[in-house]
TrEMBL record:
InterPro entries documented for this protein: Ester_Hydrolysis_Enzymes, SGNH_hydro, SGNH_hydro_sf
Ranges for domain SGNH hydrolase-type esterase: 76-230
SUPFAM superfamilies on file: SGNH hydrolase
Domain of life: Bacteria
Gene Ontology molecular function terms on file: phosphatidylcholine lysophospholipase activity
Keyword Signal: yes
Native organism: Mucilaginibacter terrigena
Entry annotated with the keyword Hydrolase: yes
Entry keyword set: Hydrolase, Signal
Protein name stated in the entry: Acylhydrolase
Length: 246
C-alpha cells in the first residue's frame, strides 16, 4: 500500500528531473528560425528602415534619388565626400540588381521619397546574365515604365549611358563591350525622342578597348575614387539640366 501511495510522487519527481535535464541539455535547444526572403525578390528590405528615418524634403529642397545597382551603391562608399557635400542626394543603389528589380523598388525607394529628380542607371547586370539573359528591348521597357511613373508623380527622370565594360570578372568571355554600346544607343535614342536628360557616364571613362580606363576602375566594372570624381562632375551637370525642366 505504501508503494502505491508513493508512486504518484515518484512519477512527479522523475518527470521534473527529466524536464530539467532536457532544459539543461544544449542539444535540445530549438534550432533558430531563419527568415525566408524569397518573396522579396527586389530586396525592398535593403532600404526600408533607412527610408522610414528619412525626413520629407524641406521646403525648396531639390532632392535627387540615385537608383541603380552596384555602380551607384559603391558611389557613396568610395566617394563619401560627394554625398556629404550634397545632403539632398539620396543613394538607392543595390548591388547585383537588374532593371525589373529597380522597377519594383521604384514606389518605395523613389516615389515615396518625393524627389525632384531621379537618376536611373540600369542594364549592366541584365547584360551580365546575373539572373538571366534579356534583350535591350526588355531593359528599355522597364526604363520606360519608370519614366511613365515619373510623369504621374512630377519627378524629372535622368537616364544614363552606362559605364564602359570590356570584361566582367565573374563572367569572363561574355564580351560585353559591344552589348553596353548597343544598350547605350537605345537609351540615348529614347531620351532624345522624349526630350529627357541623358547622363553620359560612358564617354569620360572609356579607353581604347571600349572598357573603363585602368586608372579609373578597380575591376573593369566598378569605378575607383578617381572614376567617381569624374562621374560626380557630369552628374551635377545633368542634375542642373533636369532641374531647369521643373
Amino acid at each position: 500500500m505504501r508503494i502505491i501511495r508513493l508512486l504518484p510522487i515518484l512519477l512527479l519527481l522523475s518527470t521534473t528531473i527529466f524536464a530539467q535535464q532536457q532544459k539543461a541539455d544544449p542539444a535540445n535547444k530549438p534550432a533558430p528560425v531563419t527568415e525566408d526572403f524569397k518573396d522579396d525578390w527586389a530586396n525592398l528590405r535593403h532600404y526600408e528602415a533607412e527610408n522610414k528615418l528619412l525626413p520629407a524634403p524641406a521646403p525648396g529642397e531639390n532632392r535627387v534619388v540615385f537608383l541603380g545597382s552596384s555602380v551607384f551603391e559603391f558611389f557613396k562608399t568610395r566617394l563619401p565626400e560627394y554625398f556629404a557635400a550634397h545632403k539632398n542626394y539620396i543613394d538607392r543603389g543595390v548591388s547585383g540588381q537588374i532593371a525589373p528589380q529597380l522597377l519594383l523598388r521604384f514606389q518605395q525607394d523613389v516615389i515615396a521619397l518625393k524627389p525632384k529628380v531621379v537618376i536611373i542607371l540600369a542594364g549592366s547586370n541584365d547584360i551580365a546574365g546575373t539572373t538571366g539573359h534579356v534583350t535591350n528591348e526588355r531593359i528599355l521597357n522597364d526604363i520606360k515604365s519608370m519614366v511613365e511613373l515619373c510623369r504621374v508623380h512630377n519627378i524629372t527622370p535622368v537616364l544614363c549611358a552606362y559605364v564602359p565594360i570590356n570584361e566582367y570578372p565573374w563572367r569572363k568571355g561574355l564580351q560585353p563591350a559591344e552589348k553596353i554600346i548597343s544598350l547605350n544607343e537605345v537609351i540615348t535614342a529614347y531620351a532624345a525622342k522624349n526630350k529627357l536628360v541623358l547622363l553620359d557616364y560612358y564617354t569620360p571613362l572609356v579607353d581604347d578597348k571600349k572598357g573603363t580606363r585602368a586608372d579609373l576602375t578597380l575591376d573593369g566594372v566598378h569605378p575607383n575614387a578617381a572614376g567617381y570624381k569624374i562621374m560626380a562632375k557630369v552628374t551635377d551637370e545633368a542634375i542642373a539640366k533636369a532641374l531647369k525642366l521643373k
